[in-house]
Amino acid sequence: MGGTRAVALLALGSFAMGTDAYAMAGLLPDIGADLQVSVSLAGQSVTAFTLCYALAAPLFSAVLARWGTRTVLVTALVVFVVANAGTALAGSYAGLLGTRALAGAGAGLFTPAAATAAVALVPPERRGRALGLVLGGMSAGTVLGVPLGLLVAADSGWRTALWLITGLGVVALAGVGTALPPVRGAAAPSLRARFGALTRPRVAVVVAVTFTQTVASLGLYTYLEPVLHRVADVGSAVPYLWVWGIGGVCGSLLAGTLVDRTGRPALLAVALLGTLGAALALLPWTGTVPGLVLLPLIVWGAVGWAFVVPQQHRLLAREGEGGAAAVGLNSSATYLGGAVGSALGGLALAHGLDARWLPLPAAGVALAGVLFHLTAVRALARREAGAGHRDIGIDRRDAGTERRDAATEPRDAATERRDAATEPRDAATEPRDAATDHRDKDGTGAAGVTAAEALERNTP
């Protein structure tokens, strides 16, 4: 199977993951009513999904580190299918949280393995497009899967929507399990390798910035329906979620092309994060003009999804064989940020914050990420420049030593010539020394002759 077709299979799995992760935001009111909990409390099911994605998935990845990539992907999809079936059958709030956590672990296994496999299946010049296609599959789940799931839920209940997501997982499992070729060089990283990547400063900066971006973007998305209701007095959030998802698909696909053409993923990431902050900051004031709320939504979806592409590209390009571990760590940071953001958003709503103003703290987090990125990258550049100057100084000292060594060579050669000149004189003294020894043996020499006298005799 060609690389493009194999990447399309991975995108199919990402489509199921995206539908599951993002449909829950639109189902929270129905879930809360069914299980008799508040919307903010029901929102913690999203926190359970994202938190388990971020923390439990690396542990499972470490256990499966020796397995082949295709085996890891199949295992992840099996966990995903079982977990979503369990969510559809959940009869209590505790059961809901448990099955959502398990689904998060399955997604956490699948997404980083799919990204590294996609890169391994295509030539280097097409890596950006391959990453964009896989991530585009997830964002396509928000465009097609989420509205479809919400429409099904409106007609047949939220549990039917979860059965639909389970069916998508089964289709993805069949495709990946039967048709994906073996992937070399993309095995799941060990736990030590994954967290060891944090010791490299540039990896730590990329992961930290990803965390801030997802706190803002995914955290706010969890409560998008109550936000839209307060901002624009919307009845159903389905059309607006659709617009957000369309922006996500466009952003994912275009970001890969931009990375390949410009070769400036770091600059692209900063621009996308700054645009996200601006879009979220404008959202509360768009309800006064009918339809205006769609503009920040589509921009938010586009830059939010596009941001992941240059971040993963930076890690894979700089880390070489350690790229899989770095991408896995970045993927964990993505959903850890989503968990923190949804938890903080639910806490703010529970303590009386009007949902209309929830985008403002999210925008502040995004803009803080921009400042952190610029400051950290500048500090790293100065540090590396200082190290470069020290290396140059060492090189110069080494060059000076070589010149001094070269200068001593003529003196060494002159010394050798003088030593050679003394050799004939030493040879001339040898007959006289032999004669002296003969006289001593014949008794003509004094038996108690001193060393000074002997030296005086032997002096030419």
SSE sequence, one letter per element: HHHHHHHHHHHHHHHHH
The largest sheet is:
none
Helical/strand content category: mainly alpha
Label the overall shape: globular
Q: How much is the average pLDDT?
A: 79
Low-confidence stretches: 429-460
E-strand count: 0
In angstroms, what is the radius of gyration? 36 Å
The proportion of strand residues reads under 5%
Alpha carbon gap, first and last residue: 96 Å
Number of discrete helical segments: 17
The portion of residues assigned to helices is: over 70%
What kind of assembly state do the chains in view correspond to? single chain
SSE blueprint:
Layout: H1 3-35, H2 39-42, H3 44-63, H4 69-89, H5 93-120, H6 127-156, H7 158-179, H8 191-196, H9 201-221, H10 224-232, H11 238-262, H12 265-282, H13 294-306, H14 308-319, H15 323-350, H16 359-442, H17 451-457
Helix pairs in contact: 1-5, 1-6, 1-7, 3-5, 3-15, 4-5, 4-7, 5-6, 5-15, 6-7, 6-11, 6-14, 9-14, 9-15, 9-16, 11-13, 11-14, 12-13, 12-14, 12-16, 14-15
